[in-house]
Amino acid sequence: MLSIKKGEDMDENYLSKLYELDKIAYGGNYVGELFNMTKRWKQNKSTFIAIEEDGKPLAYINILPCSKKLADEVILYSDKIIDDEIGVTLFTDEDFLYKKEENYLYILSVVNSLSEHTYKSEEIHKKNSKQEKILKDNVSLYLIKGYKEYIKELNEKDYKISKIFATTVTKGGRNWARKIGLEEYRTLSDKNIVYLKEY
Hints:
Layout lengths: L1 E5 L5 H14 L8 H10 L4 E6 L2 E11 L1 H10 L25 E10 L17 H27 L4 E8 L2 H9 L3 E5 L5 E6 L1
Parallel strand pairs: 4-5
Antiparallel strand pairs: 1-2, 2-3, 3-4, 5-7, 6-7
Helix pairs in contact: 1-2
């Protein structure tokens, strides 16, 4: 049975399992370091949301509050994805805190280990069985549900959202960004795409 697990209910061992999903979904320079992922989680645990089946993580989202300066850098200027550096060299602890007046949310990772549209397997993935496809689609729906609950909680706590944005590296990531209401904004030199929603 699928369920949503919040970052506050995770521990470092669970983070290592999410990191293994990263290695399934991404390739080359897009796989960061477990140390950096763990540091970001410790700074704001609510920014991680996982989908699991019987305690086993199948997918997750990492959504970080960030400064307007970094948001502008990603959305407007940078020609590369800024990912694993975040929270290690680019941010202070305070940058990870939600603010009442404005919040810029960077969707750093969306990983569905069952998707055929992963960076490493997009061209070679074998056709899923019907049962696997149903599970994959259900996990995608739960990812959207987890995201919506996260946004709802921020609104209920009166944290004003100014922008939500993401840089996508796979077809699955682009599809997911559109499903949650983000729109294509610009294409980077490596063909990755920035998606954006403004409030």
